[in-house]
Amino acid sequence: MPEAPTQSSSVVALRRAAHVHPARNPGVPFDLAWLDGLRVNQSAVERRTATLGTRRTVKKDAQAAWLLKAVTCIDLTTLNGDDTEGRVRRLCAKARQPVRADILAALGVPPHTITTGAVCVYHRYVAAAVDALSGSGIPVAAVSTGFPAGLIPHPLKLKEIEASVADGAREIDIVVTREHVLTGNWQALYDEVREFRAACGEAHLKAILATGDIQTLSNVARASMICMMAGADFIKTSTGKEGVNATLDVSLVMARMIREYQARTGILIGFKPAGGVSNAKTALLYQILMKEELGRAWLEPELFRFGASSLLADIERQLEHYATGRYSAFNRHPVA
């Protein structure tokens, strides 16, 4: 049986890392010159992402520490047609205590010190989630602007954002109009996201690119840059409803655009892969990508989130295996 990490282990050291929330992204004036030369070498991207799991490994107590950190970066999500208030409240309870108390005890981690990064729901359930999370410090994120297709009238998109903010959402996950990207209408994309940013008020804006729909990695790069120019605080891969959702390839391209935007403006932009990140092994690859491409700050929930639901169950299962030496069934790690 593996030995449980002690209070001086890297598990606790990583958990205690300082959380300094970056300044909001005010955006910059539209400048098409920022897109000049934005071309992506797909073969080079594929070679880079293929090495993530081979050049660096995270094992034993360090792996437990990284997985605990991953839990704190999860936007615990339910976005189904059969959602109910009861399901949302159960999800919020899980967000408050995402890892079973006996597993935390075996890892030497005090109870009630690990929570998820946020809970993500449809507008209908924002008020219920805010109530269920009262006093926890866990923000509610609302998907908005006609999620997932984003094809409702623009004035309704703005009203939906404003309604979610009024109900207590502190983060708004908007979907961009894919047509603007596919037709290269970058001014329209900028104007749209700029208005979404204004409607959010103090709530953070996460711009969903729907990378599986916009066809090329060059489009991903350009759309990422335009959304950041317009004031997005996070850029997010997918709604989770596309045929292809988060991949390491698109995530690498988006991470490098974040790095480029930071070099130009000094502003730190968050990143959220969503859809398809369903197991601990994949989560570790994304964390390695963030660490290598953007740095240590992007291992914290202020700048990095997973949009996921089933991921939490697998991470909890892996942590139990680390603590006890035994694997358990998924049904012992309910999410909602």
Automatic annotation (TrEMBL):
GO terms for molecular function: deoxyribose-phosphate aldolase activity. GO terms for biological process: carbohydrate catabolic process; deoxyribonucleotide catabolic process. SUPFAM superfamilies: Aldolase. Pfam families: DeoC (PF01791). Pathway: Carbohydrate degradation; 2-deoxy-D-ribose 1-phosphate degradation; D-glyceraldehyde 3-phosphate and acetaldehyde from 2-deoxy-alpha-D-ribose 1-phosphate: step 2/2. It is an enzyme of class 4 (lyase). InterPro entries: Aldolase_TIM (IPR013785), DeoC (IPR011343), DeoC/FbaB/LacD_aldolase (IPR002915). It comes from the Bacteria. GO terms for cellular component: cytoplasm. CDD domains: DeoC. The keyword Lyase applies. Keywords: Lyase, Schiff base. Signal peptide: none annotated. Its EC number is 4.1.2.4. The keyword Lyase applies. It catalyses: 2-deoxy-D-ribose 5-phosphate = D-glyceraldehyde 3-phosphate + acetaldehyde. Belongs to the DeoC/FbaB aldolase family. DeoC type 2 subfamily. This is Deoxyribose-phosphate aldolase.
